[in-house]
TrEMBL record, chain A:
Residues 560-620 form the Nitrite/Sulfite reductase ferredoxin-like domain. It comes from the Bacteria. Belongs to the nitrite and sulfite reductase 4Fe-4S domain family. The keyword 4Fe-4S applies. Residues 8-299 form the FAD/NAD(P)-binding domain. Residues 632-768 form the Nitrite/sulphite reductase 4Fe-4S domain. It comes from Alishewanella longhuensis. This is Nitrite reductase large subunit. The lineage of its organism: Bacteria, Pseudomonadati, Pseudomonadota, Gammaproteobacteria, Alteromonadales. InterPro entries: BFD-like_2Fe2S-bd_dom, BFD-like_2Fe2S-bd_dom_sf, FAD/NAD-bd_sf, FAD/NAD-binding_dom, FAD/NAD-linked_Rdtase_dimer_sf, NasD-like, NiRdtase/SiRdtase_haem-b_fer, Nit/Sulf_reduc_fer-like_dom_sf. SUPFAM superfamilies: FAD/NAD(P)-binding domain, Nitrite and sulphite reductase 4Fe-4S domain-like, Nitrite/Sulfite reductase N-terminal domain-like. The keyword Heme applies. The gene is nirB.
Automatic annotation (TrEMBL), chain B:
PROSITE patterns: NIRD. Pfam families: Rieske_2. Keywords: Nitrate assimilation, Oxidoreductase. Gene3D superfamilies: Rieske [2Fe-2S] iron-sulphur domain. Residues 21-121 form the Rieske-like [2Fe-2S] domain. It comes from Alishewanella longhuensis. This is Rieske-like [2Fe-2S] domain-containing protein.
């Protein structure tokens, strides 16, 4: 027998753990002889189940997918979608699907779990659903149509997440829990009680101590729940979330050893009772324990991949089941032995009914080790506590200080205090030592650390801790983690913005003499110019500002590679009359400008010389156009679809709204450019979800999406608020833009701003919708000032002979001919010649005059 | 008065060979304008109040060959002034045209001088 014979490795299940196994396996060195085939029970490749609920906020299943479709082919992995394995024949070493029979040398079971549906009469109604797969969510969405209320049966972690999803669908949500408290697995009685109050305040009705005995048809609504205590509750749909059960039926039929309550028994190498069959993830039972989280599943996947390729150094030795969650906006954390079951354990509690916070520490009998903890209301204590518990770090003499409110000087377990062995990211098993090693090997920043160690790319729970460790270690290595704008200002853009406002500064010189040093540079000058414009909206070419502007702003046009400029008139919402089109055509023809429809629904005219710009703009303005700010860090375009005016599906007039928005925000200077779009219905022809501000019409008004981005790293916009009327829409956008202008970094698009915003979308909603900072009135007033001070910059230039004189190519010579710039014809228009041959000398230094 | 200006005033022959490029008022403070002399395109950078108030450098971007350098932003680092090329942002020191990020790139330097409200271009060999 030669080693060149390929061996068959089959993986059953392409869920999160099955997928992680494939990746880990491919990372091993000894894989050449293996042919890898994966059977997926679902009709799509592996997706991020942890963030499943995001599907309800953005309806985007593709975003959840874990790897690109091309991943499998590129790595020579055969993926059989929608082809569940029906049976395993261990004697023949084959598996059977509805399509064929396949041989295996080794088999990996990664079949996960299925939701447990209690045997209640009536549970087979079409509006009784579960919450596990994308298909389940699609079913819930369909069932929500025309529904008013939804009930979740089960008040555990997933049940509460499901209740939130129902709320997002616009339903009145109820949670029915059999136990006397919510989240009985993770929380103690007090914690559960507080959570219940908080959730009830958020409008979700919680019914604890309720056993459902049957489900019958409802009189007012589709269904009626009949409880054992004789009470009833009517609802339109039911989601069962009463726990999960390991998907072990294949293993059972094949005669593998199972636990008394299910689960495929595995050893430390993740092998089942048949050494050729491995089991990993939620279907596996290790030392009588099931693991319903990704991190332990990933550890099993790593172990199995190593063992399969002959590396026996790895083994699975159990995993931490601590969790940190935000459920319906409420922080909940549970660490280790939350219930204090360890013999002799003692507990310390902090309970504040006023603030709605509860924290409990479970300590070893000697009070020196942290065994567990419960947090409700504020998870900022979680990272430190977890590190104490996981790494056995000795507690301070007064452990209660760890859970008292932060103002009392809580000794935070800073990144410096963590040992190198401390696991920062349990999903990807990354220790502090590994982070330090990566930094020593030349990785320079957080983004680099994430891509090379994969830390914080699993459940994301470790992101904040990772950031603080990386920043701490960078500082320790002498790398300045500085937010200084440049060598002239020791302030961030946000701080400079604040100084300009508070001191009422109107010019760069005032600012640099008071708060900076030196003469400025190409970084701080445009940044300050933008801040000044965002605060006071004086014309950017007014004398004190002109030397600050980036080249494009200086000439209100975009410089092209051959030194000529482009001209982009504003075409609000993409709507244009034939007469206006003709006048653009006439100008383009007269000046022989290359004409192109842009990606932003307007028309760009290329190849104008500096001297021609005022002439061209005079004609365009006479024809009724104004500047399109294609050069500015400001509003570009508001794309629109044709909307209800013409389209048979349109539910609102998207064109009018786009024009309204474009005219409202045109000329507003921001940290970076801003793009918007308005779609007339959910078909989304205007691609609003790729914009900084996206608006999509609904039957009842407008849905607002924020912080989307195209460009090098596209980001889908987040759904921010639904069914807004026109006025709400405008005031939310006013506030949002102004808050962005106030707080973003230099050249930071809204997408990156959002990605870096502490607290993310929820925080932004708090600020913009609930006015948590008390800023909204001020933000709106500031936006009003900017809107009121709008002027077409080109009109201003044309009215001022001094500004206009700036547009002479040479101060002492006639305007250069266009031919000096080297143009050649192509497809009926003039484009820059590839070989620039400009008609002025470019000879070397030695030339004498 | 700088030595150079003194030389200009006192030596009529020099003055004859120097040419007036433009008026001081054509300059834009803390920014650049372009001027032509014969086949040359010269970027004039004006820093009123600084030790050296006027610099002349080639207007042609050495990388793209486009006549754009006068339209670059002026910057200062550790007391030295430079212009950032408008297209790809390379920095060129105003005093000698040396590119700060790529030693192979330079901008040709032209000798220029302000006198009596005029901008003079001086012949290269005379001082
Ligand atoms: C003209 C146009 C291409 C076209 O022929 O269609 C264009 C041209 C330029 N884009 Fe763009 N972009 C154009 C639409 C887009 C779009 C599509 C859209 O707006 O729907 C995108 C992706 C959407 C987005 O921005 O999220 C786009 C993403 C970019 C980016 C990446 C931004 C990012 O956040 O990563 C840059 C680079 C930058 O701004 O730093 C860029 C930069 C540029 C610059 C300014 C590059 C430069 O510095 O020379 C180009 C100058 C335009 C000029 O001279 O007039 N352009 N650019 C489009 C003008 C639209 C308009 O009417 O204003
Ligand atoms: C809403 C929700 C939120 C969650 N939040 C968190 C969280 O915050 N943190 C956390 O750690 N965990 C969370 N989890 C749990 C986490 O998603 C699971 O632990 C993880 O997905 C388990 O991975 P797995 O591969 O074992 O199982 P799964 O991801 O369930 O994958 C199993 C796959 O196997 C397929 N399969 C089953 N039988 C067969 C067959 N016979 N043939 C072919 N294919 C088959 C199934 O169709 C499925 O696609 C959450 C789960 C849900 C549902
Ligand atoms: S994609 Fe690149 S080349 Fe094309 S217009 Fe945008 S910036 Fe220019
Ligand atoms: S712990 Fe899950 S991503 Fe790091």
């Amino acid at each position: 027998m030669t080693t060149s014979i390929t061996k068959q490795l089959l993986v059953i299940g392409n869920g999160m753990v099955g997928q992680h196994f494939i990746e880990q396996f491919l990372n091993q060195t000894e894989t050449a002889q293996w042919q890898l085939t994966v059977f997926a029970g679902e009709d799509r490749p592996a997706y991020d189940r942890v963030h499943l609920s995001d599907y309800f906020s953005d309806g985007n299943a593709a975003k959840l997918q874990l790897v690109a479709d091309s991943f499998y082919a590129e790595n020579k992995v055969t993926l059989k979608l929608d082809e569940p394995v029906l049976a395993i024949d261990r004697a023949a070493k084959t598996v059977t699907t509805a399509k064929a029979r396949y041989c295996y040398d080794k088999l990996v079971l990664a079949t996960g779990s299925y939701p447990f549906v209690p045997p209640i009469a009536g549970n087979d109604n079409q509006h009784c659903l579960v919450y596990r797969t994308i298909a389940d969510l699609e079913a819930i969405r369909a069932s929500s149509k025309g529904a008013r209320t939804g009930v979740v049966i089960g008040g555990g972690l997933l049940g509460l997440e499901a209740a939130n999803a129902l709320k997002l669908q616009g339903l009145e949500a109820h949670v029915v829990e059999f136990a006397p408290q919510l989240m009985p697995v993770q929380l103690d009685k007090d914690g559960g009680e507080l959570l219940r109050c908080k959730i009830a305040q958020l409008g979700v009705s919680v019914h604890t101590d309720k056993a459902t005995s049957s489900i019958s048809a409802g009189s007012e609504q589709r269904l009626q729940l009949n409880f054992s205590d004789g009470t009833v509750l009517q609802t339109d749909l039911i989601v069962f979330s009463a726990g999960i059960r390991p998907q072990d039926s294949l293993a059972k039929d094949a005669g593998l050893e199972l636990g008394p309550r299910g689960g495929i028994v595995i050893n430390n190498q993740c092998q089942s009772s048949d050494a050729d069959i491995y089991a990993i993830g939620e279907c596996a039972l290790w030392q009588g324990q099931l693991f319903g989280l990704v991190a332990p599943g990933y550890q099993m996947a790593r172990t199995a991949a190593a063992v399969l390729t002959g590396d026996n150094s790895q083994s699975f030795s159990g995993a931490d089941m601590s969790t940190k969650l935000k459920l319906l906006g409420v922080d909940v954390g549970s660490i280790g032995d939350a219930h204090g079951r360890t013999p002799g354990a003692i507990s310390l509690r902090y309970r504040n009914d006023l603030l709605g916070e509860y924290r409990k520490l479970v300590l070893s009998a000697d009070g020196k080790q942290l065994l567990g903890a419960v947090l409700v209301g504020d998870n900022s204590y979680y990272d430190s506590l977890l590190q104490y518990a996981l790494n056995g770090i000795a507690l301070p003499a007064d452990p209660h200080s760890l859970i008292l409110p932060q103002s009392s000087g809580k000794p935070l377990l800073g990144p410096a205090a963590l040992p190198a062995t401390a696991t920062l990211c349990s999903c990807h098993n990354v220790s502090k030592g590994a982070i330090c090693a990566a930094l020593d090997n030349g990785v320079q920043d957080l983004a680099g650390i994430k891509s090379c160690t994969k830390a914080a790319t699993g459940c994301g729970g470790c992101a904040a801790l990772l950031k603080s460790v990386v920043e701490h270690e960078l500082t320790a290595r002498g790398v300045a983690v500085s937010s200084d704008l440049c060598e002239h200002f020791s302030y961030s853009r946000q701080q400079l913005y604040h100084l300009v406002r508070v001191d009422g500064l109107k010019t760069f010189n005032e600012l640099i003499s008071r708060h900076g040093r030196g003469h400025g540079c190409e970084i701080c000058k445009p940044a300050v110019a933008s801040i000044l414009a965002s605060c006071w909206n004086e014309p950017v070419l007014a004398k004190p500002h002109v030397a600050l502007q980036d080249t494009n702003d200086t000439f209100l046009a975009n410089m092209q590679k051959n030194g000529t400029y482009s001209v982009v008139p504003r075409i609000p919402g993409g709507e244009i009359t034939p007469a206006m089109l003709i006048s653009i055509g006439q100008v383009a023809e007269q000046y022989q400008l290359y004409t192109k429809i842009t990606g932003g629904q307007r028309i760009d005219l290329f190849g104008a010389t500096l001297d021609q710009l005022p002439l061209i703009w005079q004609q365009l303005i006479d024809a009724g156009f104004e500047t399109g700010h294609a050069y500015g860090k400001s509003l570009r375009t508001v794309k629109s679809c044709v909307g209800s005016t013409w389209c048979r599906y349109g539910v609102q007039d998207s064109v009018s709204m786009a024009i309204l928005l474009e005219n409202r925000y045109k000329g507003v200077r921001a940290p970076h450019k801003i793009k918007m779009a308005v779609s007339g219905c959910t078909r989304e022809c205007a691609e609003a979800q790729s914009k900084d501000v996206g608006v999509i019409a609904t039957e009842n008004g407008w849905n607002l999406y924020v912080c989307g981005n195209g460009g090098m790293k596209p980001r889908h916009a987040d759904l921010f608020a639904t069914d807004l009327n026109d006025q709400q829409l405008l005031s939310y956008i006013d506030r949002l833009l102004m808050f962005y202008i106030k707080t973003a970094d230099r050249l930071q698009r809204t997408a990156t701003w959002m990605n870096n915003l502490e607290g993310g979308l929820d925080y932004l909603r708090e600020v913009i919708i609930n006015d948590s900072l008390g800023l909204c009135a001020e933000l709106e007033a500031q936006m009003q000032l900017l809107i009121a001070n709008y002027q077409c910059e080109w009109q201003t230039v044309l009215n001022d002979p001094v500004q206009r004189a700036r547009f002479n190519s040479y101060v002492n010579a006639a305007a250069p001919a266009r031919s000096d710039f080297g143009f050649v014809p192509e497809r009926g228009q003039l484009i820059p010649s590839r070989q620039l041959n400009i008609n002025v000398s470019i000879e070397s230094k030695e030339t004498s005059l | 008065m700088s030595q150079l200006a003194h030389a200009l005033e006192s030596q009529p022959s020099l003055q004859q060979q120097a040419v007036i490029l433009c008026r001081q008022q054509d300059l834009v403070p803390f920014s650049g304008v372009a001027a032509r002399f014969a086949e040359y395109a010269i970027a004039l950078f004006y820093l009123p109040g600084e030790t050296v108030e006027l610099y002349g450098l080639s207007h042609i971007d050495p990388v793209t060959k486009a006549p754009v350098m006068a339209h670059g932003l002026l910057g200062e680092t550790k007391g030295e002034f430079y212009v950032a090329a408008p297209l790809h942002k390379q920095q060129y020191r105003l005093s000698d045209g040396q590119c700060l990020s790529d030693s192979a790139l330079t901008l040709q330097v032209f000798k220029v001088q302000l006198l009596d409200g005029q901008v003079y271009l001086l012949p290269p060999t005379e001082y």
